[in-house]
C-alpha cells in the first residue's frame, strides 16, 4: 500500500487546448507530428485559431502533472501523490486546482499575479499529436516557492521524486535542490528526456541533472537525439539506453535504470549492463483516439508500481496498461477506476 505523499512531481502545469486539425494547419505553423516545442512569436495566434476553427477540448495537462495524476489514479490512495508548479491567478488556474484536487493529488501551486496559466496547443491528425506550449505562469516558478516550509515538507515526505525534462527550461535550481536532497537521503529521483529540443538546446542543464537520476525515461526519438547531441554516433536504441544507464552517478546507493518506450515496439529497459525488452499490447488502429499523454501515462503507471516496490516487469506492465487506456481517450484522461491486476 502506498503511503500519503510517497510520490512528488514538479513541473509545468498547462491547460491543453486539444483539437483534431488538418495538415495545412500544421504546415502553417511549421509543426511536425509526434513533437513538442515551446511557442515562439510565430506560434502565438495558434491558440485562438484552434478555438475559432475547430471543436476544442480543454484538459488539465502538463507532462509531469499528467504522470502524477495517472500514478494517483492507479494507486487509488487519496493524497499518495503531490505536485508543485506555477499557475496564474485566473479561471484556468482555478480549473486546474479543482481538477487535480478532485483527482486526489495534493497540489501546492505557485500562483502568479501577473501571468496567465500556461496553455498547450494539442494538434491531432490521425491520432498522432503535435504540441506547442506557451508556458506563461508555469515559466515563473522559482525555487523560493519550493523552499517555503509548507512546500519543502512535501519533498521531505516523498520517497520518490519525478520531474520531466521540460522543467529544466524553467527552474534548474529547483531540480538541483530536490535532486541533491534525494541523493543525500537515499530517495529515488527520476527524470524524463521529454522532447528533442530539451536534449539539444538544454543539453548542459540536462547533463548537470543526470548524475542524480536513478531512473531516466524517454522515447526512441528523444534517445536518438540525445545520442546525437552527445556525439556518440549511435542510432541503436538499446545501446543508447545502456550508455545513459552507465552515465556517472552522484550517489552510488542506487543503480541507474533507463526506460525507453518505442510506440508499438517493445519497451527497452537497460540496467546492470544488460538490456531487456518488454512487448506492448497492440491496439487496433480503430480504437486509437489520440496519443497525447501516452508517454506521460506510461511513466505514471510505471511509478505507481515502483513506489510499491514491485519488480521492473510489473512497473513496465503497469506503464503499458496506463498508456493503452489513455490513447483510447481524448487527452490524458481515464475512467473512474483502473482495471489493472
From TrEMBL:
Organismal lineage: Eukaryota, Viridiplantae, Streptophyta, Embryophyta, Tracheophyta
Protein's GO biological process: adenosine salvage; AMP salvage; purine nucleobase metabolic process
SUPFAM superfamilies xref list: Ribokinase-like (SSF53613)
E.C. number(s) listed in UniProt: 2.7.1.20
Keywords attached to this entry: ATP-binding, Host-virus interaction, Kinase, Magnesium, Nucleotide-binding, Purine salvage, Transferase
Reaction equation(s) it catalyzes: adenosine + ATP = AMP + ADP + H(+)
GO CC terms in record: cytosol; nucleus
KW Metal-binding (keyword) present: no
Name assigned to this protein: Adenosine kinase
Transferase in keyword set: yes
